[in-house]
Amino acid sequence: MKTYSGKPVFNGIAIGQIQILKKEKKNVFRNHVEDVEQELLRMERAVAEANEQLQKLYGKALLEVGESGAAIFEVHQMMLADLDYQESIQNIIRTQQVNAEYAVAVTADNFADMFAMMDDAYMKERAADVRDISERLISVLTEEEKEEVSAKVPTIVVAEDLSPSETVQMDKSRVRSFVTRYGSSNSHTAILARTMNVPALIGLDYEEEIDGKKAIVDGFKGELIVEPDEAVLAEYEEKAAQEEAKRLLLQELKGKETVTLGGREIRLYANIGGISDLQSVMQNDAAGIGLFRSEFLYLEKDTYPTEDEQFKIYRSVAETMAGKKVIIRTLDIGADKQIGYFGLEKEENPAMGYRAIRICLKRIDVFKTQLRALYRASAYGNIGIMFPMIISVNEVKRIKEIVEEVKKELTADGIAYGDVELGIMIETPAAVMISGELAEEVDFFSIGTNDLTQYTLAIDRQNAKLDDIYDAHHPAVLRMIQMVIENGHKGGAWVGICGELGADLTLTDTFVEMGIDELSVSPSCVLPIRKKIREHE
Ligand code: PEP
Ligand code: MG
Protein backbone atom coordinates (compact mmCIF):
# COMPACT_ATOMS: atom_id res chain seq x y z
CA MET A 1 0.00 0.00 0.00
CA LYS A 2 1.32 3.45 -0.88
CA THR A 3 -0.33 6.83 -0.37
CA TYR A 4 0.23 9.85 -2.63
CA SER A 5 -0.96 13.37 -1.80
CA GLY A 6 -2.50 15.92 -4.11
CA LYS A 7 -4.92 18.80 -3.98
CA PRO A 8 -8.62 17.91 -4.12
CA VAL A 9 -10.63 19.96 -6.62
CA PHE A 10 -13.84 18.01 -6.07
CA ASN A 11 -14.56 15.77 -3.13
CA GLY A 12 -16.00 12.29 -2.77
CA ILE A 13 -14.65 8.75 -2.54
CA ALA A 14 -13.78 6.59 -5.56
CA ILE A 15 -12.51 3.04 -5.74
CA GLY A 16 -11.24 1.60 -9.01
CA GLN A 17 -8.39 0.54 -11.20
CA ILE A 18 -5.79 3.08 -12.24
CA GLN A 19 -5.37 3.76 -15.92
CA ILE A 20 -2.50 6.08 -16.72
CA LEU A 21 -3.23 8.02 -19.84
CA LYS A 22 0.14 8.00 -21.53
CA LYS A 23 0.93 10.78 -23.85
CA GLU A 24 4.11 9.43 -25.33
CA LYS A 25 5.17 11.88 -27.95
CA LYS A 26 4.98 10.10 -31.24
CA ASN A 27 8.35 9.61 -32.81
CA VAL A 28 8.17 11.81 -35.80
CA PHE A 29 10.96 11.20 -38.28
CA ARG A 30 12.38 13.66 -40.71
CA ASN A 31 12.09 12.16 -44.18
CA HIS A 32 13.13 13.64 -47.47
CA VAL A 33 10.31 13.85 -50.02
CA GLU A 34 10.76 14.06 -53.77
CA ASP A 35 7.26 15.16 -54.68
CA VAL A 36 6.61 18.30 -52.66
CA GLU A 37 3.26 19.01 -54.34
CA GLN A 38 2.04 15.54 -53.45
CA GLU A 39 3.10 16.09 -49.81
CA LEU A 40 1.25 19.41 -49.69
CA LEU A 41 -1.85 17.65 -50.97
CA ARG A 42 -1.47 14.98 -48.27
CA MET A 43 -1.25 17.75 -45.73
CA GLU A 44 -4.35 19.48 -47.08
CA ARG A 45 -6.35 16.24 -46.80
CA ALA A 46 -5.13 15.68 -43.24
CA VAL A 47 -6.29 19.17 -42.26
CA ALA A 48 -9.73 18.45 -43.70
CA GLU A 49 -9.91 15.12 -41.85
CA ALA A 50 -8.76 16.69 -38.54
CA ASN A 51 -11.32 19.44 -38.99
CA GLU A 52 -14.05 16.85 -39.48
CA GLN A 53 -12.96 15.04 -36.30
CA LEU A 54 -13.11 18.30 -34.36
CA GLN A 55 -16.58 19.02 -35.73
CA LYS A 56 -17.74 15.61 -34.44
CA LEU A 57 -16.11 16.20 -31.06
CA TYR A 58 -17.86 19.56 -30.85
CA GLY A 59 -21.22 17.86 -31.41
CA LYS A 60 -20.45 15.21 -28.79
CA ALA A 61 -19.27 17.76 -26.23
CA LEU A 62 -22.31 19.93 -26.88
CA LEU A 63 -24.58 17.06 -25.86
CA GLU A 64 -22.47 15.99 -22.91
CA VAL A 65 -21.23 19.19 -21.33
CA GLY A 66 -23.08 22.00 -23.10
CA GLU A 67 -22.00 24.97 -25.17
CA SER A 68 -19.32 26.40 -22.91
CA GLY A 69 -17.53 23.05 -22.63
CA ALA A 70 -17.81 22.41 -26.37
CA ALA A 71 -16.50 25.82 -27.37
CA ILE A 72 -12.89 24.64 -27.03
CA PHE A 73 -13.31 22.51 -30.16
CA GLU A 74 -14.40 25.55 -32.11
CA VAL A 75 -11.23 27.24 -30.88
CA HIS A 76 -9.26 24.22 -32.11
CA GLN A 77 -10.93 24.40 -35.49
CA MET A 78 -10.03 28.06 -35.70
CA MET A 79 -6.43 27.36 -34.72
CA LEU A 80 -6.24 24.59 -37.29
CA ALA A 81 -7.46 26.98 -39.97
CA ASP A 82 -5.08 29.72 -38.87
CA LEU A 83 -3.13 30.96 -41.88
CA ASP A 84 0.14 31.51 -40.01
CA TYR A 85 0.02 27.97 -38.68
CA GLN A 86 -0.73 26.44 -42.06
CA GLU A 87 1.77 28.59 -43.93
CA SER A 88 4.50 27.61 -41.49
CA ILE A 89 3.83 23.90 -42.17
CA GLN A 90 3.66 24.39 -45.95
CA ASN A 91 6.80 26.47 -45.90
CA ILE A 92 8.79 23.80 -44.06
CA ILE A 93 7.57 21.10 -46.47
CA ARG A 94 8.50 23.24 -49.46
CA THR A 95 11.82 24.72 -48.43
CA GLN A 96 13.20 21.67 -46.63
CA GLN A 97 11.57 19.05 -48.89
CA VAL A 98 10.42 17.09 -45.85
CA ASN A 99 7.42 14.98 -44.84
CA ALA A 100 4.28 16.64 -43.51
CA GLU A 101 4.49 14.96 -40.07
CA TYR A 102 7.88 16.52 -39.48
CA ALA A 103 6.72 19.97 -40.64
CA VAL A 104 3.72 19.79 -38.27
CA ALA A 105 5.91 18.73 -35.33
CA VAL A 106 8.38 21.58 -35.89
CA THR A 107 5.58 24.11 -36.30
CA ALA A 108 3.89 22.81 -33.14
CA ASP A 109 7.10 23.31 -31.14
CA ASN A 110 7.65 26.80 -32.53
CA PHE A 111 4.08 27.96 -31.96
CA ALA A 112 3.78 26.36 -28.52
CA ASP A 113 7.05 28.02 -27.40
CA MET A 114 5.82 31.34 -28.70
CA PHE A 115 2.50 31.05 -26.80
CA ALA A 116 4.20 29.79 -23.65
CA MET A 117 6.46 32.83 -23.58
CA MET A 118 3.59 35.30 -23.79
CA ASP A 119 2.97 37.42 -20.78
CA ASP A 120 -0.67 36.49 -20.57
CA ALA A 121 -2.30 33.55 -18.83
CA TYR A 122 -4.92 33.01 -21.56
CA MET A 123 -2.35 32.95 -24.37
CA LYS A 124 -0.03 30.70 -22.37
CA GLU A 125 -2.83 28.13 -22.24
CA ARG A 126 -3.05 28.16 -26.03
CA ALA A 127 0.35 26.39 -26.09
CA ALA A 128 -1.40 23.20 -24.94
CA ASP A 129 -4.06 23.69 -27.62
CA VAL A 130 -1.60 24.07 -30.47
CA ARG A 131 0.09 20.84 -29.33
CA ASP A 132 -3.30 19.15 -29.14
CA ILE A 133 -4.28 20.03 -32.72
CA SER A 134 -0.80 19.19 -34.01
CA GLU A 135 -0.89 15.75 -32.39
CA ARG A 136 -4.25 15.21 -34.01
CA LEU A 137 -2.83 16.15 -37.41
CA ILE A 138 0.13 13.82 -36.96
CA SER A 139 -2.22 10.99 -35.94
CA VAL A 140 -4.26 11.55 -39.07
CA LEU A 141 -1.13 11.63 -41.22
CA THR A 142 0.24 8.44 -39.68
CA GLU A 143 -3.25 6.92 -39.57
CA GLU A 144 -2.80 6.09 -35.89
CA GLU A 145 -5.56 6.21 -33.34
CA LYS A 146 -5.00 8.55 -30.38
CA GLU A 147 -4.98 6.65 -27.12
CA GLU A 148 -8.35 6.89 -25.52
CA VAL A 149 -9.70 5.96 -22.18
CA SER A 150 -12.14 3.20 -22.89
CA ALA A 151 -12.33 1.81 -19.44
CA LYS A 152 -14.07 -1.52 -19.01
CA VAL A 153 -13.95 -1.55 -15.20
CA PRO A 154 -14.47 1.31 -12.72
CA THR A 155 -11.47 3.43 -13.53
CA ILE A 156 -9.37 6.14 -11.94
CA VAL A 157 -7.90 8.11 -14.81
CA VAL A 158 -4.38 9.33 -14.03
CA ALA A 159 -2.58 11.69 -16.40
CA GLU A 160 0.00 14.45 -16.60
CA ASP A 161 -2.84 16.75 -17.55
CA LEU A 162 -6.01 16.24 -19.52
CA SER A 163 -6.71 18.02 -22.75
CA PRO A 164 -10.29 18.85 -23.73
CA SER A 165 -10.22 16.33 -26.59
CA GLU A 166 -9.15 13.56 -24.26
CA THR A 167 -11.83 14.29 -21.72
CA VAL A 168 -14.58 14.42 -24.32
CA GLN A 169 -13.51 11.16 -25.96
CA MET A 170 -13.65 9.20 -22.70
CA ASP A 171 -16.16 6.50 -21.98
CA LYS A 172 -17.39 8.37 -18.93
CA SER A 173 -19.73 5.69 -17.70
CA ARG A 174 -16.76 3.88 -16.09
CA VAL A 175 -14.67 6.85 -14.96
CA ARG A 176 -14.84 7.23 -11.18
CA SER A 177 -12.16 9.86 -10.65
CA PHE A 178 -9.51 12.03 -12.29
CA VAL A 179 -6.01 12.53 -10.93
CA THR A 180 -3.46 14.76 -12.65
CA ARG A 181 0.11 15.85 -12.02
CA TYR A 182 -0.54 19.34 -13.38
CA GLY A 183 -3.62 21.51 -13.84
CA SER A 184 -5.25 24.04 -11.57
CA SER A 185 -8.55 24.30 -9.74
CA ASN A 186 -10.00 25.77 -12.91
CA SER A 187 -8.40 23.31 -15.32
CA HIS A 188 -10.48 21.14 -17.63
CA THR A 189 -9.97 18.26 -15.22
CA ALA A 190 -11.56 20.17 -12.37
CA ILE A 191 -14.44 21.47 -14.45
CA LEU A 192 -15.20 18.04 -15.86
CA ALA A 193 -15.02 16.40 -12.42
CA ARG A 194 -17.50 18.91 -11.02
CA THR A 195 -19.84 18.35 -13.95
CA MET A 196 -19.59 14.56 -13.65
CA ASN A 197 -19.78 14.70 -9.88
CA VAL A 198 -16.67 12.54 -9.37
CA PRO A 199 -13.74 13.28 -7.03
CA ALA A 200 -10.62 14.75 -8.59
CA LEU A 201 -7.09 15.52 -7.43
CA ILE A 202 -4.48 17.74 -9.06
CA GLY A 203 -0.80 18.35 -8.35
CA LEU A 204 -0.20 14.69 -7.50
CA ASP A 205 3.32 13.42 -8.10
CA TYR A 206 2.74 9.81 -9.15
CA GLU A 207 5.01 7.06 -10.49
CA GLU A 208 4.40 5.13 -13.69
CA GLU A 209 4.37 1.80 -11.85
CA ILE A 210 0.94 2.51 -10.35
CA ASP A 211 -0.65 1.86 -13.76
CA GLY A 212 -3.26 -0.92 -13.65
CA LYS A 213 -3.28 -1.16 -9.85
CA LYS A 214 -6.31 -1.02 -7.62
CA ALA A 215 -6.62 2.28 -5.78
CA ILE A 216 -8.78 4.61 -3.72
CA VAL A 217 -9.21 8.32 -4.28
CA ASP A 218 -10.05 10.23 -1.13
CA GLY A 219 -11.32 13.53 -2.51
CA PHE A 220 -11.72 14.92 1.03
CA LYS A 221 -8.14 14.42 2.20
CA GLY A 222 -6.60 14.71 -1.28
CA GLU A 223 -5.09 11.21 -1.26
CA LEU A 224 -4.54 8.46 -3.78
CA ILE A 225 -4.08 5.17 -1.94
CA VAL A 226 -2.56 2.56 -4.23
CA GLU A 227 -2.97 -1.15 -3.49
CA PRO A 228 -4.80 -0.51 -0.20
CA ASP A 229 -4.61 -3.28 2.35
CA GLU A 230 -7.80 -5.09 3.27
CA ALA A 231 -8.60 -3.04 6.36
CA VAL A 232 -8.21 0.28 4.50
CA LEU A 233 -10.23 -0.98 1.55
CA ALA A 234 -13.03 -2.12 3.86
CA GLU A 235 -12.97 1.24 5.64
CA TYR A 236 -13.28 3.10 2.33
CA GLU A 237 -15.98 0.80 0.97
CA GLU A 238 -17.95 1.71 4.07
CA LYS A 239 -17.25 5.43 3.57
CA ALA A 240 -18.26 5.26 -0.10
CA ALA A 241 -21.51 3.50 0.89
CA GLN A 242 -22.20 6.22 3.48
CA GLU A 243 -21.57 8.94 0.89
CA GLU A 244 -23.98 7.25 -1.50
CA ALA A 245 -26.59 6.90 1.26
CA LYS A 246 -26.20 10.58 2.10
CA ARG A 247 -26.63 11.46 -1.54
CA LEU A 248 -29.79 9.38 -1.82
CA LEU A 249 -31.18 10.80 1.39
CA LEU A 250 -30.62 14.29 0.10
CA GLN A 251 -32.54 13.45 -3.06
CA GLU A 252 -35.63 13.23 -0.85
CA LEU A 253 -35.26 16.93 -0.19
CA LYS A 254 -35.85 17.73 -3.83
CA GLY A 255 -39.06 19.63 -4.32
CA LYS A 256 -39.21 20.58 -0.63
CA GLU A 257 -39.15 24.18 0.57
CA THR A 258 -36.10 25.76 2.14
CA VAL A 259 -37.77 26.90 5.36
CA THR A 260 -36.62 26.88 8.96
CA LEU A 261 -38.66 25.09 11.64
CA GLY A 262 -39.84 28.57 12.64
CA GLY A 263 -41.28 29.06 9.15
CA ARG A 264 -38.74 31.50 7.72
CA GLU A 265 -37.97 30.93 4.05
CA ILE A 266 -34.42 31.35 2.75
CA ARG A 267 -33.90 31.60 -0.99
CA LEU A 268 -31.42 28.91 -1.93
CA TYR A 269 -29.84 29.59 -5.30
CA ALA A 270 -26.92 28.14 -7.28
CA ASN A 271 -23.74 29.61 -8.76
CA ILE A 272 -22.96 28.83 -12.39
CA GLY A 273 -20.26 29.61 -14.93
CA GLY A 274 -22.27 28.79 -18.04
CA ILE A 275 -25.09 26.87 -19.64
CA SER A 276 -23.41 23.52 -19.06
CA ASP A 277 -23.92 23.90 -15.29
CA LEU A 278 -27.69 24.20 -15.68
CA GLN A 279 -28.21 20.45 -15.66
CA SER A 280 -26.62 20.30 -12.23
CA VAL A 281 -28.77 23.23 -11.06
CA MET A 282 -31.90 21.29 -12.04
CA GLN A 283 -30.68 18.00 -10.58
CA ASN A 284 -30.04 19.69 -7.26
CA ASP A 285 -33.28 21.63 -7.33
CA ALA A 286 -31.94 25.15 -6.74
CA ALA A 287 -34.66 27.80 -6.54
CA GLY A 288 -32.78 30.08 -8.91
CA ILE A 289 -29.35 31.27 -9.94
CA GLY A 290 -27.71 33.69 -7.54
CA LEU A 291 -24.46 34.16 -9.44
CA PHE A 292 -23.82 33.59 -13.12
CA ARG A 293 -20.13 34.42 -13.59
CA SER A 294 -20.55 35.94 -17.05
CA GLU A 295 -16.82 36.43 -17.54
CA PHE A 296 -16.58 32.77 -18.58
CA LEU A 297 -18.31 33.73 -21.83
CA TYR A 298 -15.46 36.12 -22.48
CA LEU A 299 -12.74 33.76 -21.25
CA GLU A 300 -13.78 31.01 -23.63
CA LYS A 301 -13.47 33.19 -26.70
CA ASP A 302 -10.55 34.79 -28.43
CA THR A 303 -12.41 37.95 -29.25
CA TYR A 304 -15.21 39.97 -27.63
CA PRO A 305 -18.50 38.03 -27.58
CA THR A 306 -21.05 39.99 -29.58
CA GLU A 307 -24.34 41.32 -28.20
CA ASP A 308 -26.22 38.60 -30.07
CA GLU A 309 -23.97 35.80 -28.84
CA GLN A 310 -24.41 36.96 -25.27
CA PHE A 311 -28.13 37.54 -25.67
CA LYS A 312 -28.68 33.95 -26.87
CA ILE A 313 -26.89 32.54 -23.83
CA TYR A 314 -28.61 34.78 -21.26
CA ARG A 315 -31.98 34.11 -22.89
CA SER A 316 -31.36 30.39 -22.88
CA VAL A 317 -30.52 30.44 -19.15
CA ALA A 318 -33.55 32.62 -18.36
CA GLU A 319 -35.85 30.37 -20.41
CA THR A 320 -34.46 27.17 -18.92
CA MET A 321 -34.98 28.52 -15.42
CA ALA A 322 -38.58 29.22 -16.42
CA GLY A 323 -39.39 32.30 -14.38
CA LYS A 324 -37.07 31.51 -11.49
CA LYS A 325 -34.60 34.23 -10.59
CA VAL A 326 -31.39 34.37 -12.66
CA ILE A 327 -28.83 36.86 -11.34
CA ILE A 328 -26.11 37.58 -13.84
CA ARG A 329 -22.98 39.33 -12.72
CA THR A 330 -21.46 41.68 -15.25
CA LEU A 331 -17.98 41.03 -16.52
CA ASP A 332 -15.51 40.48 -13.68
CA ILE A 333 -12.08 40.17 -15.26
CA GLY A 334 -8.62 41.31 -14.28
CA ALA A 335 -6.73 39.92 -11.28
CA ASP A 336 -6.80 36.11 -11.60
CA LYS A 337 -8.95 36.18 -14.76
CA GLN A 338 -6.92 37.58 -17.63
CA ILE A 339 -8.19 37.81 -21.19
CA GLY A 340 -5.64 38.40 -23.93
CA TYR A 341 -7.82 40.38 -26.32
CA PHE A 342 -8.63 43.01 -23.70
CA GLY A 343 -4.98 44.05 -23.98
CA LEU A 344 -4.67 44.73 -20.25
CA GLU A 345 -1.26 45.81 -19.07
CA LYS A 346 0.70 43.76 -16.59
CA GLU A 347 0.20 45.21 -13.11
CA GLU A 348 2.24 45.08 -9.93
CA ASN A 349 -0.82 44.32 -7.85
CA PRO A 350 -3.60 42.99 -10.08
CA ALA A 351 -6.03 42.05 -7.28
CA MET A 352 -6.13 45.72 -6.36
CA GLY A 353 -5.78 46.88 -9.90
CA TYR A 354 -7.72 47.49 -13.06
CA ARG A 355 -10.46 44.89 -12.83
CA ALA A 356 -14.21 44.16 -12.86
CA ILE A 357 -16.46 47.25 -12.78
CA ARG A 358 -13.40 49.49 -13.04
CA ILE A 359 -12.81 48.16 -16.55
CA CYS A 360 -16.52 48.34 -17.46
CA LEU A 361 -16.75 51.98 -16.39
CA LYS A 362 -13.80 52.82 -18.66
CA ARG A 363 -14.75 50.51 -21.55
CA ILE A 364 -18.32 51.76 -21.89
CA ASP A 365 -18.62 50.05 -25.30
CA VAL A 366 -17.96 46.63 -23.78
CA PHE A 367 -20.22 47.38 -20.80
CA LYS A 368 -23.13 48.60 -22.90
CA THR A 369 -22.91 45.59 -25.22
CA GLN A 370 -23.32 43.31 -22.23
CA LEU A 371 -26.10 45.39 -20.67
CA ARG A 372 -28.04 45.45 -23.97
CA ALA A 373 -27.76 41.66 -24.20
CA LEU A 374 -28.89 41.29 -20.59
CA TYR A 375 -31.87 43.63 -20.95
CA ARG A 376 -32.95 41.96 -24.20
CA ALA A 377 -32.83 38.58 -22.42
CA SER A 378 -34.88 39.99 -19.54
CA ALA A 379 -37.96 39.80 -21.76
CA TYR A 380 -37.66 35.99 -21.58
CA GLY A 381 -37.42 35.34 -17.87
CA ASN A 382 -36.69 36.73 -14.43
CA ILE A 383 -33.30 38.35 -14.74
CA GLY A 384 -31.38 40.31 -12.11
CA ILE A 385 -28.08 42.04 -12.77
CA MET A 386 -25.32 42.63 -10.28
CA PHE A 387 -22.07 44.55 -10.45
CA PRO A 388 -18.77 43.36 -8.96
CA MET A 389 -16.08 45.14 -6.90
CA ILE A 390 -18.06 48.22 -5.94
CA ILE A 391 -16.37 50.74 -3.65
CA SER A 392 -18.46 53.90 -3.91
CA VAL A 393 -21.93 55.38 -4.26
CA ASN A 394 -20.72 57.34 -7.28
CA GLU A 395 -19.87 54.14 -9.12
CA VAL A 396 -23.39 52.87 -8.54
CA LYS A 397 -24.92 56.17 -9.68
CA ARG A 398 -22.82 56.09 -12.85
CA ILE A 399 -23.83 52.46 -13.50
CA LYS A 400 -27.49 53.38 -13.13
CA GLU A 401 -27.08 56.26 -15.62
CA ILE A 402 -25.57 53.86 -18.15
CA VAL A 403 -28.36 51.35 -17.52
CA GLU A 404 -30.92 54.11 -18.18
CA GLU A 405 -29.17 55.01 -21.45
CA VAL A 406 -29.25 51.36 -22.53
CA LYS A 407 -32.95 51.07 -21.72
CA LYS A 408 -33.71 54.25 -23.67
CA GLU A 409 -31.76 52.98 -26.66
CA LEU A 410 -33.61 49.66 -26.60
CA THR A 411 -36.95 51.45 -26.41
CA ALA A 412 -35.94 53.64 -29.34
CA ASP A 413 -35.04 50.47 -31.27
CA GLY A 414 -38.45 48.98 -30.43
CA ILE A 415 -36.88 46.14 -28.41
CA ALA A 416 -38.77 44.77 -25.43
CA TYR A 417 -37.26 44.19 -22.00
CA GLY A 418 -38.60 43.13 -18.62
CA ASP A 419 -38.32 44.33 -15.03
CA VAL A 420 -34.79 43.78 -13.84
CA GLU A 421 -33.63 43.87 -10.22
CA LEU A 422 -30.30 45.66 -9.88
CA GLY A 423 -27.82 44.72 -7.18
CA ILE A 424 -24.20 45.01 -6.24
CA MET A 425 -21.65 42.63 -4.86
CA ILE A 426 -20.26 43.50 -1.48
CA GLU A 427 -16.65 42.41 -1.83
CA THR A 428 -14.67 45.30 -0.39
CA PRO A 429 -14.46 46.66 3.16
CA ALA A 430 -15.31 50.06 1.63
CA ALA A 431 -18.65 48.75 0.37
CA VAL A 432 -19.36 47.23 3.79
CA MET A 433 -18.71 50.51 5.58
CA ILE A 434 -21.00 52.50 3.27
CA SER A 435 -23.57 49.72 2.85
CA GLY A 436 -26.19 51.98 4.47
CA GLU A 437 -25.88 54.53 1.64
CA LEU A 438 -25.48 51.86 -1.03
CA ALA A 439 -28.69 50.13 0.05
CA GLU A 440 -30.64 53.25 -0.93
CA GLU A 441 -29.44 52.84 -4.51
CA VAL A 442 -30.08 49.16 -5.26
CA ASP A 443 -32.56 46.30 -4.92
CA PHE A 444 -30.15 43.81 -3.39
CA PHE A 445 -26.68 43.03 -2.09
CA SER A 446 -24.79 39.82 -2.74
CA ILE A 447 -21.81 39.34 -0.44
CA GLY A 448 -18.75 37.98 -2.26
CA THR A 449 -16.95 36.48 0.70
CA ASN A 450 -14.04 35.20 -1.39
CA ASP A 451 -12.88 38.70 -2.22
CA LEU A 452 -14.23 40.26 0.96
CA THR A 453 -12.03 37.92 3.01
CA GLN A 454 -9.02 38.65 0.81
CA TYR A 455 -9.41 42.43 1.13
CA THR A 456 -10.35 42.40 4.80
CA LEU A 457 -7.48 40.18 5.92
CA ALA A 458 -5.05 41.58 3.31
CA ILE A 459 -4.37 38.01 2.15
CA ASP A 460 -4.07 37.18 -1.53
CA ARG A 461 -6.69 34.47 -2.11
CA GLN A 462 -4.47 32.93 -4.80
CA ASN A 463 -1.40 32.55 -2.61
CA ALA A 464 -1.13 28.86 -1.64
CA LYS A 465 1.44 29.72 1.04
CA LEU A 466 -1.16 31.73 2.95
CA ASP A 467 -3.96 29.18 2.64
CA ASP A 468 -3.72 28.31 6.33
CA ILE A 469 -4.30 31.89 7.50
CA TYR A 470 -6.91 32.82 4.87
CA ASP A 471 -9.65 32.51 7.46
CA ALA A 472 -13.11 33.27 6.17
CA HIS A 473 -14.41 32.62 9.71
CA HIS A 474 -12.37 35.55 11.03
CA PRO A 475 -14.58 37.66 13.34
CA ALA A 476 -13.86 40.70 11.15
CA VAL A 477 -15.45 38.98 8.17
CA LEU A 478 -18.44 37.70 10.14
CA ARG A 479 -19.10 41.11 11.70
CA MET A 480 -18.97 42.69 8.27
CA ILE A 481 -21.56 40.24 7.00
CA GLN A 482 -23.80 41.09 9.96
CA MET A 483 -23.36 44.80 9.29
CA VAL A 484 -24.20 44.45 5.60
CA ILE A 485 -27.38 42.50 6.37
CA GLU A 486 -28.54 45.11 8.90
CA ASN A 487 -27.72 48.08 6.67
CA GLY A 488 -29.19 46.40 3.62
CA HIS A 489 -32.48 45.75 5.37
CA LYS A 490 -32.65 49.28 6.78
CA GLY A 491 -32.25 50.67 3.27
CA GLY A 492 -34.79 48.28 1.74
CA ALA A 493 -32.36 45.94 -0.03
CA TRP A 494 -32.45 42.17 0.37
CA VAL A 495 -29.12 40.51 1.16
CA GLY A 496 -27.52 37.27 0.01
CA ILE A 497 -24.13 35.56 0.06
CA CYS A 498 -22.64 34.15 -3.14
CA GLY A 499 -19.04 33.56 -2.02
CA GLU A 500 -17.83 30.10 -0.98
CA LEU A 501 -18.61 30.83 2.66
CA GLY A 502 -22.31 30.65 1.83
CA ALA A 503 -21.91 26.88 1.46
CA ASP A 504 -20.15 26.42 4.80
CA LEU A 505 -22.55 24.22 6.78
CA THR A 506 -20.93 25.21 10.06
CA LEU A 507 -22.14 28.78 9.45
CA THR A 508 -25.61 28.15 8.04
CA ASP A 509 -27.28 28.64 11.43
CA THR A 510 -25.27 31.82 12.03
CA PHE A 511 -26.31 33.29 8.68
CA VAL A 512 -29.95 32.45 9.28
CA GLU A 513 -29.76 34.12 12.71
CA MET A 514 -28.08 37.15 11.17
CA GLY A 515 -31.12 37.53 8.91
CA ILE A 516 -29.72 36.46 5.54
CA ASP A 517 -32.34 36.37 2.76
CA GLU A 518 -30.54 34.29 0.17
CA LEU A 519 -27.61 31.87 -0.13
CA SER A 520 -26.11 31.07 -3.53
CA VAL A 521 -23.79 28.07 -3.65
CA SER A 522 -22.34 25.45 -6.02
CA PRO A 523 -25.19 23.25 -7.28
CA SER A 524 -23.91 20.18 -5.40
CA CYS A 525 -24.14 22.10 -2.08
CA VAL A 526 -27.81 23.05 -2.45
CA LEU A 527 -29.42 19.97 -0.87
CA PRO A 528 -27.09 19.70 2.15
CA ILE A 529 -27.83 23.35 2.96
CA ARG A 530 -31.57 22.84 2.49
CA LYS A 531 -31.35 20.03 5.03
CA LYS A 532 -29.50 22.26 7.48
CA ILE A 533 -31.97 25.13 7.12
CA ARG A 534 -34.96 22.84 7.53
CA GLU A 535 -33.47 21.69 10.84
CA HIS A 536 -32.92 25.26 12.09
CA GLU A 537 -35.03 26.03 15.18
C1 PEP B 1 -16.47 36.41 -4.35
O1 PEP B 1 -15.52 37.19 -4.46
O2 PEP B 1 -16.86 35.95 -3.26
C2 PEP B 1 -17.22 35.99 -5.55
C3 PEP B 1 -18.34 35.30 -5.47
O3 PEP B 1 -16.71 36.31 -6.77
P1 PEP B 1 -15.46 35.54 -7.44
O4 PEP B 1 -15.12 34.34 -6.61
O5 PEP B 1 -15.89 35.21 -8.82
O6 PEP B 1 -14.40 36.61 -7.37
MG1 MG C 1 -15.21 38.27 -6.34
What would the keywords be for this entry?
about 525 residues; alpha/beta; Glucose Oxidase, domain 1; TIM Barrel; eight-stranded mixed beta sheet; eight-stranded parallel beta barrel; 19 helices; globular; binds phosphoenolpyruvate
Describe the structure.
The protein has 537 residues and is an alpha/beta fold. The protein has three domains: 2-23 and 148-232, Glucose Oxidase, domain 1, CATH 3.50.30.10; 36-142, Enzyme I, Chain A, domain 2; 265-534, Alpha-Beta Barrel (TIM Barrel). It is built from 19 helices and 16 strands. The strands form two sheets. Strands 1-8-7-3-4-5-6-2 form an eight-stranded mixed beta sheet. Strands 9-10-11-12-13-14-15-16 form an eight-stranded parallel beta barrel, surrounded by four helices. Helix 10 (307-320) packs parallel to helix 12 and helix 15 crosses helix 17. The two termini are 46 Å apart. The site of phosphoenolpyruvate has 10 residues, from strand 10 and helix 16. Phosphoenolpyruvate binds at residues 291, 293, 332, 427, 448-451, 498-499.
Secondary structure layout plus pairing:
Elements: E1 2-5, E2 7-10, E3 13-21, H1 36-81, H2 83-96, H3 100-116, H4 121-142, E4 155-159, H5 164-169, E5 175-180, H6 188-196, E6 200-202, E7 214-218, E8 223-226, H7 230-251, E9 267-272, H8 278-283, E10 289-293, H9 295-299, H10 307-320, E11 325-329, H11 357-360, H12 364-377, E12 382-387, H13 393-412, E13 421-426, H14 429-433, H15 435-441, E14 444-447, H16 449-457, H17 475-490, E15 494-497, H18 508-514, E16 518-521, H19 526-534
Parallel strand pairs: 3-4, 4-5, 5-6, 9-10, 9-16, 10-11, 11-12, 12-13, 13-14, 14-15, 15-16
Antiparallel strand pairs: 1-8, 2-6, 3-7, 7-8
Helix pairs in contact: 1-2, 1-4, 2-3, 3-4, 10-12, 12-13, 15-17
Bound molecules: phosphoenolpyruvate (PEP) and magnesium ion.
